[in-house]
Write a structure and sequence with these properties.
The complex is a heterotrimer. By secondary structure, chain A is α/β, with parallel strands linked by helices. Chain A is 45% helix and 11% strand. In chain A, strand 6, helix 8 and strand 7 form a beta-alpha-beta unit. The radius of gyration of chain A is 24 Å and the shape is globular. Chain A starts with 22 loop residues before the first helix and ends in a 17-residue tail after the last helix. The radius of gyration of chain C is 13 Å and the shape is globular. The two termini of chain C are 16 Å apart. Classes of the chains: A alpha/beta, B alpha/beta, C alpha/beta.
């Protein structure tokens, strides 16, 4: 029935050179190998997607989500069209009513003329590799609205609560003219950090029952929330939980000019508290703008994205320049303790880029304490 | 949320058996997953007080039956659920069944009617008359019961979300026949909880839905002494995939919640409790079902007397209707379903049911044909007249196995009651998705057991005949029914007094805002004016809002 | 990366029987598909709108209300209108064999009546997706 190894931990089949191919490596090699876009089909798809054709947009999203060879072209075309929209993240434990709240927020923004996209991320089962994406169903009353686009994504093995390509999918949606992108994810494990890196403003949604757990609440959630929402506030203990939460948040030493996350009460089921929440989100965005924080945050995020891509590029280059036999030899030397891991890395690096190595030689053994150990 | 797939359990070792005695490789568990011992003996009677726990039929706690003589005094009512197409076609089927010996009517409505939609509503497209009869207004009710003396038979109506509305239409029709309300006998299913939990034909959110149920209970208590205002249902909960213990527990807990709500509204428990009734499923695990009915009676009696302090013995007696399990029927080799239905019906009878519906063999494929429904009726008649099981009450009383099963089901039900209480009660459980989750898990586990061949279903995953051809006639619904119904509605709206209708609907909306008002008189007024179902639902919907489900996995 | 199969499990019309749809959805998840469940009471247009936005490979429609001869063709029509003819429309429920044949002739895929093992539907979808690889 289920595979006997958890999905995502199984090493992918080795590529020709004996290593699992990195993302950029795959995209690059596959697009080298693929036919050139002779009939302009891809270009047409991209144009239609950005012009508002939903089927084309959805297919473009799939290309990106599946890390297909065509994804690079799609993303490169999309990126110049991004930056004008706002991304809001909604996270929190399961059962807090996030989807219902997202639905209400979406409706609110639609009412103000914004074009709204929702990306709802749910975890992929580590056992089967499949996923039940159950957020869309809670937004059913928004169906049929042309200015709204909802896409469900599975995390596909990513441990952080977002899928690896979630940020890129948001790029596409922005490029297609959606001025508000709402990203919904379940706050488990380390996922809170990922969502904070992907959006401008983070809403953490809790329910009064988690009030007892304010003490036990994960530090991660407390750190990254720009706004805190106590949903299902018609339940017992809502006010008390709000006060507890405010007390805990107040323990952080505020830096001058910083933002104090508000704690808001909502009943998402009937929309109570949603306009006030939306207003606070605007206030936060305004704060970010006036304090130059919005630009700074986005710059940091771009930095992180590009660093990641550069890293992947470097890895690909390394693998292209140092063949499998050399790797095997170095690994054997490590096993036999003739090399330390740092030395091994230096060795591989020098073999990949011998010119740089000659120009700036590594320090000789003995001059750096951490380089002690036998040399082959 | 995602979780690892439940691993199908290996065939349970029979408890206490030496390896040599283990026998065949099969799951020796009831269909609900309870392990069964190879044999039960008098040792299993230990701890039971026969006088207190088993008793005699007709005496508290009614484990053995609510009447001293049971079927010697009177046979169960043979009540075949029927309805399809137009009111005229259903009327013909009713008269056919009454001619062939059926003793009470049970009306099946189509899905738009079950949800409170008129036949010309865009959402009703393709569904009018498909699963039951389409009833939009008093005009349809008049045709439905033409030539049938409502004062002389009992009529059961399977309607829930819009039950109060449809009942109003029925009462207006009876009035037109000249039958005083006090003479009308019958049952309204009217169980909104199981809609949210299982059948999913709701009209309004839980709290206004409960208010309507209480209004009908109150109205019946005051004006229709022969009428059963609620048939608290487990049938659908079971069909949705629940186990026998879940069916038992969730149904009884729903019933107790209605009791609490009616008492809160100011009724004395003994005023209405004698007219509460129940509706259970009869599934294939023969002895488990029999034990379930016996446990139901005992649990109900105990709670009604000890917890709700009812004083009238009739308030302690659980009366129930049974339907054989639709979900046990197979599309493959459909004639086998006749056998399944017969076994299930026998379980219902040995369990002491007050009325019984037997399914037809072709119901996995379509609504029953005349021939199939007749065989289903004959099944009951053969059990009643040829088998001798009616010669004595509770024939299986005292059986080591059946009494042990009865005790166990009672214990399991009580555990569920505690669980539900801990979650804040039935409405809270519905809102948090508790019932729906439990039921989905049970149904998924069952499906996995079947696919792993741990449970054999003849014709489906064992004794399969892949090339068998279907030999039975299937009832086809003429799509013309929808067209005719839409046309009839247009005619009705044009010829009735629309000012009167609007005034009555406005009064209904106003009354909906006031929790203390009983809505039945307003609904009957609207019915008399030929307002349609959809119009009445909208009028109340302005105040009550709509319900949207958040599905649970 | 191994292509993920995305399936929309849909309930259309007023039919409230969702036991089968939910069991099938869970089985699909356990088979490694990404499953989006529409919930109850969807119109054909809503079903297809969701199918388009989610760019699914398959729409699996569950119907036990007898309205299949209206609703399956309506979904097919809507798929065509919205440019989603590459999507497989399959499903199951209470559908007599002769109606299944009629629907298949109209362009619906294989249909699964009561008693069909979920494993069969899983295998069918896998085969179909392998035989109909995606182009841009």
């Amino acid at each position: 029935m289920a595979p006997d190894r958890p999905f995502g931990v199984v090493p992918r089949p080795a590529a020709q050179r004996g290593f699992p191919p990195s993302r950029t490596e795959r995209m690059a090699t596959e697009s080298l190998a693929s036919q050139p876009d002779a009939d302009g089909g891809l270009r047409r798809l991209i144009d239609r997607a950005f012009a508002g054709d939903r089927m084309s947009l959805a297919r473009a999203i799939s290309l990106v989500e599946n890390e297909a060879p065509e994804a690079r072209a799609v993303l490169d075309a999309a990126f110049p069209r991004t930056g004008g929209g706002v991304r809001v993240g909604i996270t929190g434990p399961p059962g807090a009513g996030k989807s219902t709240l997202v639905s209400q927020l979406a409706r609110h923004y639609r009412g103000r003329g914004e074009r709204v996209a929702v990306v709802a991320v749910d975890p992929t089962s580590p056992f089967s590799g499949g996923a039940l994406l159950g957020d869309r169903v809670r937004m059913a009353e928004l169906a049929g609205d042309e200015g709204l686009f909802i896409r469900s994504m599975a995390s596909r093995g990513s441990l952080g609560g977002l899928a690896v390509t979630t940020t890129e999918v948001c790029d596409l949606l922005e490029a297609a003219g959606f001025t508000r992108v709402l990203v919904e994810t379940v706050g488990v494990g380390q996922s809170e950090l990922e969502v904070a890196e992907a959006v401008d403003s983070v809403l953490v949604v809790l329910v009064p029952e988690s009030g007892d757990g304010v003490q036990a609440m994960k530090a991660g959630l407390m750190e990254i929330g720009d706004l805190f929402v106590l949903n299902k506030a018609d339940r017992e203990g809502a006010e008390r939980a709000a006060q507890e939460l405010r007390a805990v948040l107040g323990l952080k030493q505020p830096a001058p000019g910083s933002w104090t996350p508000p704690v808001l009460l909502t009943v998402a089921r009937n929309g109570e508290g949603v306009p006030a929440l939306a207003e606070q989100v605007e206030r936060h965005l305004e704060h970010l703008r006036t304090q130059q924080l919005l630009a700074a945050r986005r710059r940091l995020r771009l930095h992180a994205r590009v660093s990641e891509l550069v890293y992947q590029r470097a890895t690909r280059q390394l693998r292209a320049r140092v063949d499998a036999a050399r790797w095997e030899a170095i690994l054997t030397a490590l096993e036999e303790r003739r090399l330390s891991p740092h030395q091994a890395a230096a060795r591989l690096w020098n073999e990949a880029w011998p010119d740089e190595a000659a120009a700036a030689p590594e320090p000789a053994p003995g001059t750096c304490p951490e380089e002690e150990g036998t040399r082959s | 949320m995602n979780q690892p797939p439940p691993v199908p359990r290996p065939a349970a070792a029979t408890p206490g058996a030496a390896p040599a005695a283990r026998g065949r490789d099969a799951l020796f568990e009831t269909i609900s997953g309870n392990p069964v011992a190879p044999v039960y003996t008098s040792a299993d009677d230990a701890g039971r007080d026969p006088a207190r726990d088993v008793g005699v039929p007709g005496d508290y706690p009614y484990t053995r039956g609510i009447h001293p003589t049971m079927y010697r005094g009177r046979l169960w009512t043979m009540r075949q659920f029927a309805g399809f197409g137009s009111a005229r076609q259903t009327n013909a089927r009713f008269r056919y069944l009454l001619e062939h010996g059926q003793t009470g009517l049970s009306v099946a409505f189509d899905v738009p009617t079950l949800m409170g939609f008129d036949s010309d509503d865009p959402k009703a497209l393709g569904e009018v008359g498909m699963c039951g009869v389409a009833v939009d207004s008093l005009a349809d009710m008049e045709v439905l019961f033409a030539g049938i003396a409502l004062g002389e038979i009992t009529t059961s109506m399977t309607i829930n979300g819009p039950a109060a509305i449809v009942w109003a239409l029925f009462l207006a029709a009876a009035e037109k026949q000249g039958v005083p309300f006090a003479q009308l006998g019958g049952t309204l299913q009217n169980d909104c909880f199981k809609e949210f939990i299982a059948q999913k034909c709701w009209c309004f959110p839980p709290r206004p839905a409960v208010r309507l149920v209480v209004d009908t209970i109150e109205y019946a208590t005051r004006h229709l002494p022969r009428w059963n205002s609620v048939s608290v249902s487990g049938y659908h909960i079971r069909e949705a995939g629940a186990t026998a213990a879940q069916e038992l527990a969730f149904t009884l807990k729903d019933g107790f919640t209605y009791v609490e709500e009616a008492v809160k509204a100011g009724l004395d428990v003994d005023e209405f409790a004698p007219r509460l009734s129940f509706f259970f499923n009869a599934h294939m695990d023969f002895f488990e079902e029999i034990a379930k009915y016996r446990a139901a009676r005992r649990i109900y009696a105990r709670h009604m007397r000890e917890v709700y302090r009812a004083k009238d013995p009739r308030s302690w007696q659980l009366r129930f209707h049974t339907q054989t399990a639709g979900c046990s029927l197979t599309a493959q080799q459909p004639e086998n379903n006749i056998v399944r239905t017969a076994i299930e019906a026998l379980a219902g009878v040995l369990g002491g049911t007050q009325s019984l519906h037997t399914n037809s063999m072709d119901e996995t494929l379509a609504l029953p044909s005349d021939k199939a429904v007749k065989i289903a009726l004959r099944t009951q008649q053969i059990i009643a007249h040829e088998t001798g099981v009616t010669n004595t009450a509770d024939p299986l009383g005292g059986s080591y196995y059946v009494e042990a099963l009865t005790d166990r089901l009672e214990r399991e039900a009580e555990a569920y009651f505690r669980e539900i209480d801990a979650r804040g009660g039935v409405v809270a459980g519905i809102e948090s998705g508790y019932f729906q989750r439990e039921i989905h898990r049970a149904s998924y586990r069952y499906q996995q057991e079947v696919e792993a061949k741990q449970r054999i279903i003849v014709g489906v995953n064992g004794f399969v005949e892949p090339d068998a051809k279907l030999e039975i006639p299937i009832l086809a619904i003429d799509p013309q029914v929808e067209e005719d119904q839409v046309a009839a509605l247009a005619g009705l709206r044009a010829t009735r007094d629309n000012d009167l209708v609007q005034r009555r609907l406005a009064a209904l909306t106003a009354a909906s805002r006031d929790e203390r008002q009983n809505l039945m008189p307003h609904l009957i007024d609207c019915a008399r004016a030929y307002a349609t179902q959809g119009e009445m639902r909208h009028a109340m919907g302005e105040v009550f809002g709509e319900y949207r489900e958040a599905p649970e996995f | 990366m191994e292509r993920k199969i995305r399936v929309l499990v849909a309930k259309a019309g007023l039919d409230g029987h969702d036991r089968g749809a939910k069991v099938v959805a869970a089985a699909f998840r356990d088979a490694g598909f990404e499953v989006i469940y529409t919930g109850l009471h969807q119109t054909p247009d809503q079903v297809v709108e969701a199918a388009v936005q989610e760019d699914v490979d398959v729409v699996a429609l569950s119907l036990l209300s007898g309205a299949h001869m209206t609703l399956f063709p309506a979904v097919l029509r809507s798929l065509r209108e919205k440019g989603a003819t590459h999507v497989l429309l399959t499903g199951g429920g209470i559908i007599p064999p002769q109606d299944m044949e009629a629907l298949i002739k109209q362009g619906v895929g294989k249909l699964f009546g009561p008693g069909s093992p979920t494993a069969e539907a899983v295998a069918y979808i896998r085969e179909w997706c392998a035989a109909h690889p995606r182009t841009i």
